[in-house]
Amino acid sequence: MQFKTWSDVNAVIQDMWIVDRKRSENRAFMNSLANGFPPYTDEEARDNRISVNVNFLQYPKILHDADRQYKNAFKSTSNFFTVGLDWGPIVKRESWGGIITSGINRRMKKSHAYNECLNGVIGNTVLHGLGVSSWVDRHMWVPNDHMVGDVLVPSNTLRSLTNLECFAIKRRYTTWELFRLTHGPRTDPAWNMPMVNSCLRWALKQTATTRSALDLMNPEVVAEEFKANGGAYTIDNVPVIECWDFYFLADDGKQLGWQRRIIPEMTDEIERTDGMAEQHGRRPMREDLIENEDANAGYLFNSQKRCYAKKWSEIMHVQFGDASRVPPYRWHSVRSLGWLLYSVCHLENRMRCRFDEHVFSALLQYFRAGQGQEELVKKLDLTNYGAIPEEIKFMPANERWAVDQNLVETAMLLHRQSMSDVSLAYTQDYNFENDKTRKTATQFMGETSSTNAMVAEMLNEGYIYEKARHEEICRRFCIKNSRDPDVRAFRAECLHKGIPEEYLEPDCWIITPERVIGSGNEQLAIARANMLMSQVNRFDPSSQKTILRLFAFAATRDAGLTEQLVPISPVAVTDSVHDAQQSIGTLMLGLDVQIKPGMNHIEYVETLIFELAALLSQVEQSGGMTDAQHLWGFVTIVRSIQQHIAIVAQDKIEKERVTIWQKDLAKLENLIKGYEQRLMEQQKAQQTATTTGGEADPTAAAKAQAIIQQAQVKAQLTMQTHGQKMQMRAEQNQQKQAGWQAEQARKKEAHDLEMQQKIGAQQVQDAATDLRTASEIQRKQAQSAAQNTKPKES
């Protein structure tokens, strides 16, 4: 797909806009009802003599409750998502993932712009079933939300967007925003500066400026005008420049990707709007654009054959809230909660208006008067103890027209039931307070879970769509030399905390959105938390704390307060330490223990070495002798330690730690070899202690007894020597630990200095790039100015 001229792009956009016009009218009806507009138009109320024309706001109330549940599901957690690493040193993945998760989510939670974007997406998802957001450029991580009518896609586009080949997004730039995007260092060269200057000149003409028309033709004068008076071009009396941001999938045979074009608004509707503006002293922008007739002149932005994005998900994100039951599911066949409720809520408003009108009419007083006595009735003054003429008679209630109240109440009850059936998945029942039957917690949770089935299904789908946006935001946080200050600060923070640059890649990240209990329904969350709390004593201690946190969050709906009430305290014994302590018994039996993926091998090795040293110390205290079973257990422990040391040794950073382990393990192996030699000598002595007839040989027995006594004396001496060695080893270990800490401090200081040098060098490189870009822009502007001022040949 290729678009050679701006008119081709404009034709495609107008086709999509015309087809979407009827859908836009339907969305406008739902918007009016949600905004509280009355059910009858002024013409309908006047023609039908309707005196009560009021919106009773059931529709916006239900939408508000659904909006609240979506916000509870997506925004109430302490983090939007967590990041785990599936690549790199196993012992570092957990800590690095925590640093990355905290760094990105902290900036997302603080961003007011992202919070408002999320509010807009959720609101459109509930009302229209489509929540669209897009990124204005390739670097900034915060997206912008859009009205559904501002995003045009071809008909028959599937909800999966697998057959999407082009789409357009309407953007409204203030003159200052357009100037800021197109001027300054590191500006995208795809901006068509002659067209940009034409738009800026048009904006200047709409303001009370004293500049002459000749000055406005000079790009330098225009630029200086905006730099000096930038704030004046952001106020209400300056029109915005409405543009269509058009993207299409292009395949030139070498690469497949999305290209970008931006053109000003060129529809007939805008021409009529510009004509109205001209009546108020403003000239339409179209007049300035007609002067340029070449193929590229109509573009504000033209990426040419350069690939702007590899996937459409790098440009926009779509959150679907679709209740449609007719597959295949398409973009334009989405049926939202607002669509499901519109008809019955609109009809309910009309009926209640007529009902209230009847109530008002029932309060009026009617009289029966003869012909020509109407003026007498108007002069009638009904006072206390007053009298009325005989010619005038009250009209009794049995002679007046009356509405069938039972029929009206039945109709209104059916309407409310219809609204309840559709909205009960999002909100409480209308007449929930009228149910006087007290229900058990199990009954309540069962009923709430069944009514929450639809929203739970939609939120499960919503989490999948949210994950796609989180993945794109994480990709943007990994862009090198980004223009976004948050991205630059995040990368500097990760590098400073020791995360290598090669691990700041989204391909090695596992992104998991955080979910809340109860699918955003507060009552269901409290019911489930209470159910867990009732059985909390049956869970493990670690699980009990998790349940307590769930209960505190369900009761407060405040992640910060939950952290204060039930803080996540540091774990005294980690899983790796506990696994090592548990495996000692199995290893002492001579049985192998399989290596569990994802474990902390450093903690595992240190725990096994400590436990083995403790076991050998018990043997030394008991005389330095052991049996074959224990000896084989010691050998099995040593073999297991060596396997885990080999895994840690793959990380070159842990080379010094591995060396210390190997030295300590060698000393323990020497003790085990000594036990083995003594055991062999004991076995030989026992073999020679018996005669061929089974009677004991006194000489051999005396010799064996001497060997045993010698071994006991040797064991005592060894124990004393071992105690001295242990004391010396402890002192050496303290010295080594102090030296190791000093070395680590030196390495950290060197690493921090190196990071500062790298950051400084990167800043110098960025500054140089900015200077080169600014110089190139000035050169191009000078060339453009020279071409514009060059006299045309006759």
Structure description:
By secondary structure, the protein is α+β, with helices and mostly antiparallel strands. It has four domains: 1-26 and 153-312, no CATH class; 36-129 and 336-371 and 412-431 and 439-518, no CATH class; 576-688; 696-785. Helix content is 58%, strand content 7%. It contains 26 helices and twelve strands. The strands form four sheets. Strands 4-5-6-7-8 form a five-stranded antiparallel β-sheet. Strands 3-2-9 form a three-stranded antiparallel β-sheet. The protein has a two-stranded antiparallel ribbon with strand order 1-12. Helix 24 (628-648) runs antiparallel to helix 25 (655-688). It starts with 5 loop residues before the first helix and ends in a 5-residue tail after the last helix. Mean pLDDT is 77; it is low at 208-218, 230-235, 267-293, 425-436 and 444-451.
Helix/strand class: alpha+beta
Overall geometry comes to flat
Please give the radius of gyration in angstroms: 40 Å
Strand tally is 12
- Tell me the number of helical segments per DSSP (H or I, 4 or more residues long): 26
Uncertain spans, ≥5 residues at pLDDT below 50?
Answer: 208-218, 230-235, 267-293, 425-436, 444-451
Strand content: 5-15%
Report how far the terminal alpha carbons are from each other. Answer: 40 Å
Report the oligomer.
Answer: single chain
Helical content class: 55-70%
Average residue-wise pLDDT: 77
Largest sheet: 5 strands, antiparallel
How do the strands line up in the largest sheet? Answer: 4-5-6-7-8
Number of domains: 4
